[in-house]
Write a structure and sequence with these properties.
The complex is a heterotrimer of chains A (250), B (291) and C (283).
Chain A lengths: L1 E12 L2 E12 L3 E5 L6 H8 L9 E9 L2 E2 L7 H7 E4 L10 H11 L5 H14 L3 H4 L12 H14 L4 E5 L7 H14 L4 E5 L3 H7 L2 E6 L2 E7 H6 L4 H7 L5
Chain B lengths: L2 H16 L1 H24 L1 H6 L3 E2 L4 E2 L2 H32 L2 H16 L2 H20 L6 H25 L3 H9 L4 H30 L2 H7 L16 H8 L5 H38 L3
Antiparallel strand pairs in B: 1-2
Helix pairs in contact in B: 2-12, 4-7, 4-9, 5-7, 6-7, 6-10, 7-9, 7-10, 8-9, 9-12, 11-12
Chain C lengths: L7 H34 L5 H5 L2 E2 L4 E2 L2 H32 L4 H15 L2 H15 L6 H25 L3 H9 L4 H29 L26 H10 L4 H33 L3
Antiparallel strand pairs in C: 1-2
The chains are: A alpha/beta (250), B mainly alpha (291), C mainly alpha (283).
């Protein structure tokens, strides 16, 4: 069953076309990687799925994006509810300048969950799910900005899963991290896919092969090829995919 | 002249211009204190600051009523200016569409540029009669002065706090919105707390401007040296005391007006130190990662 | 889910209205003040008002001597403060390394900017008028105003010098230019629009100030010929007209002239900043 279906998506910023006729189906409880050279539109694409691009002036979109069969740009859709269902982890870890605890509790607070016991429970569970609990349980009241980059990124993941989304979008979540932290995040992605549908943008093709079941290759705003990950990397059908994965450009 | 000598002389010359502000401040301190301290000394420092009676003809030089007047006007104007200016600053930084911003920016610059005597004159012509009708009395009062000051400190607080809000990294905002927070929740819980040190600096700067304002206050405050018992009582500010009496003061009275300036000077330095401390603390917060 | 009085969405809508209202109030305040003063001022505003001398302490006639006095004190303040402010900005941006002296210089400028104008007034009286013996003159007034304009010019100039790309300096130094040649021929020309804006803003502060020159320029109704003559700049004239109850009509006229000057300054500086930014972005 597909959680997200995208049909003929075109995105413009003012006069520049960023995405051209994108079609993709993202199945439930799997990891889908989006690869491609810088500027190919993959970040724009995932920011369209939780409507973060609404914040940018000049954003125009044609085509459809369905989440569980519901068109997410339909006027009846509440963008706040959508973002609750579709969480996002950013390229640079961006914890709030608040304590570790408050960072994770933030989403609960804005969604009206104020019962102290429930909040504490959910914060603990989220930190455990994000494989961060053991490292921060002694310093929940300390500022999140004191954590290492890798810990901050896992905190951002914990913050996202605390509000129990259905989909997690990750925009190059490891690009600012060292190899050890990267491994930890990848392990975490493996664990999370049981419960969440994950879409990850990555520069790193090894990472795509390690974490994802499906991979789509973006080039100049178009999807060149989508396939099972091993198939895409071992037997690319399109010449451009082959050139990219064998390192001839990009 | 050889090159390195020329370069050396230029650097020294520039250094002298760089320390000119400090030299000026030292000169100001020397001259104000030379003239002012004799009065404070002969009347007694404590009597001068905590004395309630200002009667130069009888040799009484207590400035406490004016300290109260200055603080009263200033605090009252802050109470009115802070909500309006913070909402306006957030509006400009986060909510206003770009054409609205293009209107507001020059509006605030113009508000900042209007001479204080024009504000005072406007208050004298429109606000004083209005207050007289509404609350009785003369219309010259602490409240009248603080309303005029509110308008005068608006641009200071708005522009400095807008800068502070704008300097909050957009990552915080995106993170909050991506968690499904509304724009107001994001402002309230993330942007405002992060910008708070800058906002407090803005408020302190506004406060400095209010305490230091002279002619606009003179024109609407009534200038009576007494403790106000209500908001619509007339008061005299420290600045007003100097401007009103300097024209005819001689002897110890003349010195006592410089003494008034010393008190004013210390109030401003005190505010500056708080502002600098906050800036310093803000750096520690972001660099060290502790809240 | 806990009970909430209003849903976040309703809150969002309410707050958005509150924000819009606060923005509109700010605009209204300006419009009301400016509109009222211009409206009342236009009753007496005429070429004759601007170009003739006051009669009977300002109950009739015009404000020509006041305009000349204002020009005098403002120009003197600019001529004195601009080299000092720009020099200090160059020193801080190009020659100094971060240290206590830089902190002290910045604190000095900041303190100077926060000293109440009436304290400058007392200083002007005791230092320029009495100690240096310059007497009540447009020179004394201009010098006091220079001290007030200094921090503004310094701050704006420093920002615009800092904004000059490092590559400009490297390019010049790599060609064998000395540091000063680089500053003088490359950095300062690139920063000129910003520096000019700073000087205008500093002089704008000077032209609208009255309290600081209350005890320095005198209050003469005649046109100052030399810089040692006393004068009565516009803000001071307005203050005297209004507080001594001489003529409200003429006070409005004077206020209107000052408001027009402020409006012109705002438009000019905004245009300069716009053009400068466009140039920096290569358009």
């Amino acid at each position: 069953m597909n959680r997200i279906e995208v049909e003929n998506l075109n995105v413009h910023f003012d006069d520049a076309q960023i995405l051209k006729d994108v079609n993709i189906k993202i199945p439930k409880n799997t990891v889908t990687s989006l690869i491609g050279p810088s500027g190919c539109g993959k970040s724009t694409f995932i920011r369209t799925i939780n409507r973060m691009n609404d914040l940018i002036s000049g954003f125009k979109k044609e085509g459809h994006i369905y989440l569980d069969g519901q068109e997410i740009y339909d006027p009846s859709v509440d963008v706040v509810e959508l973002r609750k269902k579709v969480g996002m982890v950013f390229q640079k870890p961006n914890p709030f300048p608040k304590s570790v605890f408050d960072n994770v509790a933030y989403g609960l607070k804005v969604h009206g969950i104020t019962d102290k016991n429930i909040v504490e429970e959910r914060v603990r569970e989220s930190l455990k799910s994000a494989a961060l609990w053991e490292e921060v349980k002694e310093k929940l009241e300390k500022s999140a900005l004191g954590l290492s980059g890798g810990q901050q990124q896992r905190l951002c993941i914990a913050r996202t899963i605390a509000i129990e989304p259905e989909v997690i979008l990750m925009d190059e979540p490891c690009s600012a991290l060292d190899p050890i932290s990267t491994t930890k995040i990848e392990d975490l992605i493996h664990k999370l896919k049981k419960e969440y549908t994950i879409v990850i943008v990555t520069h790193n093709m090894q990472q795509a092969t390690r974490v994802s079941k499906f991979t789509s290759f973006f080039l100049h705003g178009e999807i060149v090829e989508s396939a099972r990950t091993e198939r895409l990397f071992l037997e690319p059908k399109d010449k451009r995919t082959e050139d990219y994965i064998t390192g001839r450009f990009g | 002249m050889n090159n390195s000598l020329q370069e050396y002389l230029i650097e020294k010359g520039l250094f002298i211009t760089a320390i000119s502000s400090i030299l000026v401040i030292i000169l100001i301190i020397i001259f104000i204190f030379l003239e002012g301290l004799p009065a404070m000394e002969s009347y007694g420092f404590l009597n001068f600051i905590f004395g309630s009676l200002w009667a130069p003809t009888q040799g009484e030089f207590g400035v406490l009523t004016m300290i109260v007047g200055s603080l009263g006007i200033t605090l009252l104007s802050l109470v009115m200016a802070i909500p309006l200016s913070l909402f306006c600053a957030i509006f400009m930084a986060e909510i206003a569409p770009s054409n609205m911003r293009k209107i507001l920016k020059p509006v605030i610059e113009t508000l900042a540029g209007i001479p204080s005597v024009v504000y005072g004159f406007f208050g004298l012509i429109t606000l004083v009669p209005f207050m007289r009708e509404q609350f009785g009395g003369t219309g010259f009062s602490m409240l009248t002065a603080s309303i005029i000051l509110t308008v005068m400190i608006l641009p200071t607080i708005i522009s400095v706090s807008e800068d502070a809000i704008r300097s909050i990294p957009s990552e915080y905002k995106e993170a909050s919105l991506a968690l499904g927070a509304t724009q107001w929740q994001t402002i309230q819980n993330v942007i405002f707390p992060a910008a708070l040190p800058g906002i407090i600096t803005a408020i302190i700067l506004g406060m400095g401007r209010a305490i230091g304002e002279t002619l606009a206050v003179i024109m609407v405050a009534g200038n009576v040296t007494q403790y106000p018992t209500s908001l619509v009582d007339p008061v005299r500010a420290l600045t007003a005391n100097i401007a009103i009496e300097m024209g005819y003061a001689t002897g110890l009275h003349y010195n006592a007006l410089f003494g008034t300036a010393i008190v004013l000077f210390f109030m401003i330095v005190f505010l500056l130190i708080i502002a600098n401390y906050l800036q310093y603390k803000k750096k520690v917060v972001i660099g060290g990662g502790y809240l | 889910m806990s009970f909430r009085l209003l849903s976040p969405k309703v809150y969002q809508k309410i707050m958005k209205i509150v924000f819009w209202i606060s923005g509109i109030i700010t605009i209204m305040i300006l419009l009301v003040i400016i509109g009222y003063i211009l409206f009342k001022g236009f009753e007496v505003l005429s070429l004759e008002f601007i170009f003739s001398a006051p009669i009977d302490s300002g109950r009739a006639g015009g404000i020509f001597p006041m305009i000349i006095s204002s020009l005098y004190v403002t120009l003197i303040s600019g001529l004195v403060a601009a080299p000092l402010g720009v020099g200090a900005a160059v020193y801080l941006a190009e020659y100094s390394e971060d240290g206590w002296i830089v902190k002290l210089i910045r604190f000095g400028a900041e303190t100077l900017a926060s000293i109440p104008s009436i304290v400058f007034g007392l200083f002007g009286l005791s230092f320029f008028v009495i100690f240096l013996g310059l007497g009540w003159s447009v020179l004394s007034g201009g010098l006091v105003l220079a001290l007030m304009a200094l921090p503004t010019i310094f701050k704006v100039a420093e920002v615009s010098i800092d904004a000059v790309p490092e590559s400009y300096r490297e390019g010049s130094l790599a060609l064998g230019a000395t540091k000063w040649e680089t500053v003088y021929r490359v950095v300062l020309p690139a920063a000129t629009p910003g520096i000019t804006t700073g000087v205008i803003l500093g002089m704008a502060r000077a032209i609208s100030e009255a309290a600081a020159i209350l005890f320095a320029v005198g209050a003469a109704l005649t046109i100052p010929v030399s810089i040692f003559d006393p004068g009565r700049p516009l803000p001071l004239h307005l203050y005297i007209l209004a507080t001594e109850g001489i003529s409200l009509e003429y006070a409005f006229g004077t206020a209107a002239v000052m408001v027009i000057i402020v409006l012109i300054i705002t438009v000019v500086t905004n245009n300069m900043v716009d053009r400068y930014q466009k140039k920096l972005m290569g358009r």
